[in-house]
């Protein structure tokens, strides 16, 4: 009885854009290509201190972070957010620091315990 209700419930969930996983993957590939083509323009426009290859590697890394997602609705939401981010970048609605935030992963983690905070000079 519980299994029959579950199937009816999942069938009632309406997709955002993609009807199936294949269509969602196609949208991801289109977004990836758009970002890949935009990297040289972004590097030049924002006068970034990176090469085009580094920018494209970062795009690949950002897409691979979500490679494990298999739900078409979640994929569609990620694609929507990616398209919004791409539009903001192309239209120069971002500033240089917003774009460079993607490349600052070398920050040291903040101290968590008392002694580490003390040694760093933070208030406990």
From TrEMBL:
Record InterPro entries: Complex1_LYR_dom, Complex1_LYR_NDUFA6_LYRM6, NADH_Ub_cplx-1_asu_su-6
Domain of life the protein comes from: Eukaryota
GO cellular component, one term: mitochondrial inner membrane
Function, in words: Accessory subunit of the mitochondrial membrane respiratory chain NADH dehydrogenase (Complex I), that is believed to be not involved in catalysis. Required for proper complex I assembly. Complex I functions in the transfer of electrons from NADH to the respiratory chain. The immediate electron acceptor for the enzyme is believed to be ubiquinone.
Subunit architecture: Mammalian complex I is composed of 45 different subunits.
Annotated PANTHER family: NADH DEHYDROGENASE [UBIQUINONE] 1 ALPHA SUBCOMPLEX SUBUNIT 6 (PTHR12964:SF0), NADH-UBIQUINONE OXIDOREDUCTASE B14 SUBUNIT (PTHR12964)
Family membership noted in the UniProt record: Belongs to the complex I LYR family.
Name under which the protein is recorded: NADH dehydrogenase [ubiquinone] 1 alpha subcomplex subunit 6
Species this chain originates from: Lophotis ruficrista
Gene: Ndufa6
């Amino acid at each position: 009885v519980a299994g029959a209700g579950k199937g009816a419930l999942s069938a009632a969930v309406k997709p955002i854009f993609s009807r199936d996983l294949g269509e969602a993957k196609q949208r991801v590939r289109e977004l990836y290509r758009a970002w890949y083509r935009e990297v040289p323009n972004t590097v030049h426009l924002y006068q970034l201190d990176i090469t085009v290859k580094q920018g494209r590697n970062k795009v690949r890394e950002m897409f691979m972070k979500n490679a494990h997602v298999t739900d078409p609705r979640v994929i569609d939401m990620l694609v929507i957010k990616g398209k919004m981010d791409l539009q903001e970048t192309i239209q120069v609605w971002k500033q240089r620091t917003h774009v460079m935030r993607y490349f600052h992963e070398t920050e040291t983690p903040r101290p968590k315990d008392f002694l580490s905070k003390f040694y760093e000079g933070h208030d406990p």
